[in-house]
Design brief:
The protein is built from 3 helices and 2 strands. The protein is 47% helix and 11% strand. The longest helix is centred in the C-terminal third of the chain and has 20 residues. It is flat, with a radius of gyration of 15 Å. Strands 1-2 form a two-stranded parallel ribbon.
Length: 88
């Protein structure tokens, strides 16, 4: 996490959904956990992260497991931000 990235993400509204598959390669799951750890350094008032491990998914099925929930998560912020005057 560079200083430039910290400044950027602490300045702009950002929604991030991280959905690893439990039956994927172990290195991919470790990578997702590492990404989650690094992203928790960001300011939670501008950067919103949701990590959701799918126990029954693998590399071939993660999109079908996670897509609807990812869209639901991302759009849950729409009502929260629609009455704000700031650009995001």
């Amino acid at each position: 996490m560079t200083e430039n990235l910290l400044n950027y993400y602490n300045s702009y509204q950002t929604l991030y959904y991280l959905a690893p598959a439990a039956h994927d390669l172990p290195r991919r799951n470790e990578y997702a956990k590492d990404v989650q750890r690094k992203l928790t350094e960001l300011d939670s008032t501008k950067f919103h992260l949701k990590y959701q491990l799918f126990e029954n998914a693998d590399q071939n099925s993660i999109v079908t497991h996670g897509l609807l929930l990812a869209i639901e998560y991302l759009f849950s912020f729409y009502n929260l931000f629609e009455n704000k005057t700031e650009n995001w």
